[in-house]
């Protein structure tokens, strides 16, 4: 991504979400007949989101030559649960997808702590060189954070309207993630290492 314009990466990351939000807002009060079935705005938005995510992922892979495990897992789960929502004409499957993703991420981070492996550093180490203790702290905090996000998603989709969940998904979750990363600024500073002295990303914690 170093040779691309600065706006390309955020556009690829948030573009599919904006597509989902725009289609939902456009059709949230309408019903569209396709393949002999009536589909509401939520399902139409899901139908637009899946190919948009595939396109953004393909472009990112073309530009960087690699995808992170989180990107691959997200793409697979979006396809499976989004596909189920479209096939069964039931938004609940797609709403459940973030919960599963966040629980999966929390479990992976928890396993890295149990096995004393720096898997989070393998993803973020180049951009954020820290010592082993710093990575261990951030891994534990992020595991708890993902569990909180999973719980929040469950509460919102089960107790609130489709519109509320879409706003939460599109804007609430990115804001919460940004706040979490910003809130750990002191941790990054206290445990920072010069890039040249950073340890191997897969070294034991």
List strands and helices in order, with pairings.
Blueprint: H1 8-27, E1 31-34, E2 37-40, H2 41-64, H3 69-88, H4 92-114, H5 119-124, H6 132-159, H7 162-183, H8 185-190
Antiparallel strand pairs: 1-2
Helix pairs in contact: 1-2, 1-7, 2-3, 3-4, 4-6, 6-7
Give keywords.
Inner membrane-spanning protein YciB; cell inner membrane; transmembrane helix; 2 strands; 2 domains; mainly alpha; cell membrane; membrane; 205 residues
Please compute the radius of gyration using only Cα atoms. Answer: 19 Å
Number of helices: 8
| Count of distinct structural domains | 2
Q: Give the averaged pLDDT, no decimals.
A: 87
Tell me about the largest β-sheet.
2 strands, antiparallel
Low-pLDDT stretches are 196-200
Alpha-beta classification? mainly alpha
Distance between the termini: 29 Å
Order of helices and strands: HEEHHHHHHH
Task: Give the strand order, joined by hyphens, for the main sheet.
Answer: 1-2
Please state roughly what percent of the residues sit in beta strands, choosing from under 5%, 5-15%, 15-25%, 25-35%, 35-45% or over 45%.
Answer: under 5%
The share of residues in helices is: over 70%
What is the overall silhouette? globular
Number of E-type strands:
2
Keywords: Cell inner membrane, Cell membrane, Membrane, Transmembrane, Transmembrane helix
Organism: Paracoccus liaowanqingii
GO cellular component, one term: plasma membrane
Pfam family, one: IspA
């Amino acid at each position: 991504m170093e040779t691309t314009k600065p706006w390309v990466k955020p556009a690829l990351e948030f573009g599919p979400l904006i597509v989902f939000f725009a289609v939902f807002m456009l059709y949230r009060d309408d019903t569209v007949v396709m393949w002999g079935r009536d589909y509401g705005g939520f399902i139409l938005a899901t139908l637009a989101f899946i190919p948009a995510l595939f396109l953004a992922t393909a472009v990112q892979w073309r530009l960087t030559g690699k995808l992170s495990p989180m990107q691959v897992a997200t793409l697979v789960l979006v396809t499976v649960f989004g596909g189920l929502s479209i096939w069964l004409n039931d938004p609940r499957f797609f709403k459940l997808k973030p919960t599963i993703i966040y629980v999966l991420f929390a479990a992976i981070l928890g396993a890295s702590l149990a096995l004393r492996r720096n898997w989070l550093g393998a993803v973020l180490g180049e951009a954020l060189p820290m010592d082993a203790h710093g990575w261990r702290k951030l891994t534990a905090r992020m595991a708890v954070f993902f569990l909180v996000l999973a719980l929040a998603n469950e509460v919102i989709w089960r107790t609130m309207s489709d519109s509320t969940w879409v706003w939460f998904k599109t804007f609430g979750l990115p804001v919460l993630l940004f706040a979490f990363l910003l809130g750990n600024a002191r941790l990054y500073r206290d445990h920072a290492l010069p890039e040249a002295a950073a340890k191997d990303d897969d070294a034991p914690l």
